[in-house]
């Protein structure tokens, strides 16, 4: 689908800047995940998504844009290492929720600290005023996007059940 209008120079510059920032954040997060033994960006993202509380595995798959089988593999690995645990969903006996363990929280905290340090090193050449402008711009961006509390709707959405060819299929996370 092609755009119905041509973007302005300002829109193009903003998009270019944001895509560049996304590449920077991905590089920083990947470096942090590897340096603190979380392993991969996907595993770090999974721990981060669970920071706010337990979440259904299907919701994790939806948010991470990964297949249920890929999420199952990541969850199984994190569970073997004692970083997450599976628990029954009180609202739906058929559903499984994934939760951080205390060790998982410690790994997440190390990841967050490693990411902050790596980002700080990348931005070290900026002045204090430049860093303050970036923080203000990010704050403005969060206000426009909204506070997307990842776990807020994890209870209500039956994401472990996916509609396929007119019937419902339950995706099990062992």
What descriptive keywords fit this protein?
174 residues; 5 strands; disordered C terminus
List the helices and strands and how they pair.
Blueprint: H1 9-35, H2 41-49, E1 55-56, H3 57-64, H4 68-80, E2 84-89, E3 92-100, H5 102-122, H6 128-145, E4 161-164, E5 167-170
Antiparallel strand pairs: 1-3, 2-3, 4-5
Helix pairs in contact: 1-5, 3-4
Question: Can you tell me about this structure?
Answer:
This protein is α+β, with helices and mostly antiparallel strands and 174 residues long. Helices cover 55% and strands 14% of the residues. The strands form two sheets. A three-stranded antiparallel β-sheet has the order 1-3-2. The chain has a two-stranded antiparallel ribbon with strand order 4-5. It is globular, with a radius of gyration of 19 Å. The termini are far apart. The C terminus is likely disordered.
């Amino acid at each position: 689908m092609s755009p119905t209008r041509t973007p302005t120079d300002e829109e193009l510059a903003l998009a270019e800047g944001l895509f560049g920032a996304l590449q920077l954040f991905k590089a920083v997060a990947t470096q942090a995940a590897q340096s603190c033994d979380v392993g991969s960006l996907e595993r770090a993202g999974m721990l981060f998504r669970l920071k706010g509380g337990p979440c259904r595995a299907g919701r994790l798959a939806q948010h991470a844009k990964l297949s249920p089988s890929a999420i199952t593999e990541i969850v199984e690995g994190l569970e073997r290492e004692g970083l997450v645990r599976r628990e029954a969903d009180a609202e739906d006996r058929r559903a499984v929720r994934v939760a951080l363990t205390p060790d998982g929280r410690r790994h997440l905290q190390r990841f967050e600290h490693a990411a902050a340090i790596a980002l700080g090193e990348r931005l070290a050449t900026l002045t204090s005023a430049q860093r303050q402008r970036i923080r203000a711009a990010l704050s403005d961006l969060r206000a426009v996007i909204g506070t997307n509390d990842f776990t807020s709707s994890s209870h209500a959405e039956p994401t472990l059940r996916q509609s396929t060819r007119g019937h419902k299929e339950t995706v099990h996370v062992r």
